[in-house]
């Protein structure tokens, strides 16, 4: 058996997955280093979401292995995977997926409350992140009264407040305007770097990928060449893909 490298927080080998016969992943291997911001890029339908679902334990690949901190995820049962996702992972999707009955701060605190953290401590952690995302004054509002961009900030606060080891972000800015996009991503990547949180960020947007430390490119469910470029002056990291296999 091949043992995952020690410094990879997430390590995947030869992932294959198809959705009812439609190919999703065709043999993807990758490692994500501790504290790294990794962008997974590629055109629509290239397998980015399928890959993030497999890496985060939401989906068990039909073939291949996924390891988190040298623990196999692909062999875990549904309950252990759910516990892993709740305790160690954060998820930010393109849509915020908030609980409509809960207020802003309750939504942001939800993962902590589900873990059994006290109401007071969960509220404090959630409120701190809501403040940092400039939506502290909306803490008592419910999602339906907020703008899409404000709701998406709640989902970012929710992911960060839980202090996860890894945040998976699947096209987190797809529904936002350009200015909003940049601010939200910079807050996410800066906060992750300062707190040692690893981020796996799926995007088809080169500008978004440029905020990452490294880029892995997918095409038709397979990895294609990654080319590291020198950091541009206005980005924290930069990378680009050449779409040749
Ligand atoms: N639930 C599903 N049922 C059937 N086919 C699916 C399903 N999810 C994904 N696929 C197919 O698997 C392939 C990879 O899709 P996936 O969503 O992983 O790619 P993606 O790069 O994230 O695309 P996008 O940017 O559009 O979200 C596509 O051909 C897609 O149509």
Automatic annotation (TrEMBL):
Family of the protein in this entry: Belongs to the ABC transporter superfamily.
Query: Which terms does the record give in the GO molecular function aspect?
Result: ATP binding
Q: Report which superkingdom the organism of origin falls in.
A: Bacteria
InterPro entries associated with the record = AAA+_ATPase, ABC_transporter-like_ATP-bd, ABC_transpr_LolD-like, P-loop_NTPase
Secreted: is it a keyword of this entry? no
Q: Name all ABC transporter domain ranges.
A: 10-245
| Species lineage | Bacteria, Bacillati, Actinomycetota, Actinomycetes, Kitasatosporales
Pfam families listed in its UniProt record: ABC_tran
Q: What is this protein called?
A: ATP-binding cassette domain-containing protein
> What PROSITE patterns does the database record attribute to this sequence?
ABC_TRANSPORTER_2
